[in-house]
Input
Amino acid sequence: MTRVVLAPDSFKGSLDAASVAEALAAGWASVDPTAEFVHRPMADGGEGTVAAFATAIDGATAMPVTVDGPAGVPVRTRWLLLPPSPDAPGGTGVVDLASTSGIELLDDLRPLDADTTGFGQAIAAALDHGVSRLILGIGSSASTDGGTGLLRALGARFLTAEGAEAPAGARGLGLIARIDLSGLRPAPEVRVLTDVTHPLTGPRGAAAVFGPQKGLTDPEEIRRADRGLSSLASLLALEPRTAGAGAAGGAGGALLAWGGTLMPGAEEVARLVGLADAVAGADVVVTGEGSYDGQSGDGKVPSFVAALAAEAGTRALVVAGRITDDADLSPFAAAESLTGIAGSTEAALADPITHLRAAAARLASP
Output
C-alpha cells in the first residue's frame, strides 16, 4: 500500500489548497485504489492559510465575521479558532489578510484607497473571543497603507497636523503628523506568516516593488507612498530597513510595531500541521501551486515541501497550473502541469479539478 502525503498550496484565484488535495487524491486513487492519503494542504501566509489549518487541525472551528473589505463594502468571511493548548489556554486565532483585505476581493484595483481595515477587524474579533495567540497570514494584500487600517481597527489613531483623522489607504500616508496609540489593544503572542523579506521603504520596499501589482504605477505616486511609509516608520519608532516590514504593503511593519514576530510562512504552517512527521512516514509527497516558476524556489511551498522530502528520503512530485521554462524541477522526481494536460491556460482554468485528477493519475501510473 502506497502512503501519499498531499501538501499543495492553493492555486491562486482558482482552488484552495484543500480542494487541490482532494482532487489529487481522487486522481491518484483511480490508478492506485489501495493508496492511503494524508492531507496536509499548505500555505505560506497568503490565500488559503485559514483553509489549510481548518483541514489539518482537529477541532478547528470557523468563526464567521463581517468586515469592511478593500473595495469599501462589507465582506463576509471567517477567522479560525484552534483548540486550547497548554501554551495557549484561550485557543489560537488564525486570520488571513487575503480573505479580509486581499486583492482577490477587488473587481477594480484601488491603489490609493484600499486599506487593511477588514484584516484588523477580524483580528479584533479574535481578540474579543479571548484567544491567547494569533497566527496572521499577510499574503495577497490589496493595499499599500502601511498597515494603518489594521492598526486603526485595533484602536490606533492617525492624525493630520490639524488633528483630524488622516484619510485611509496610501492616500493618507503623507498627511499623518501624529499617531495616538493610547487606545491600541495590547497584543497577545502574535506570529506573522509571510514569504516576503522586503524592507518597508527604498528601491526594494513596499511601494516600489509591490505597489505596481496593486495599481500604484505612476512614478510620483510611488515616490509619495514611499515617503509616507518612511514618515510612518519614524512615528512608529520602526526601523524601515527591517526584513519583512514591507510585506503586504507595509502591514508587516505595522504588526512588528504592534509586537508581532515575522516568520517564514511555509515553515510555520508546516510545523503547526505536522508536515515533517507526515512526510517522514510516507512513500511519496505531492505538492504544487498555481504557477511554478523561477521564483518558486524562494521560500514558496513547493520548494519547502521538496526540502522536507529530501531530508526524509521521500519521493517528491509537483503539480502546477503552469510550469515555466525557468522553473527548477531538480528537487522533484516528476512534474505535471495542468496547462500541458489541458492544452492551454484557458482550458486548464475552465476545469482545474478534472485536470488535477488527470495529473495525479499520470504521476501514480507505473
Summary: Residues 219-235 form the longest helix (17 residues). The mean pLDDT is 95. The two ends are 14 Å apart (CA to CA). The longest strand covers residues 74-82.
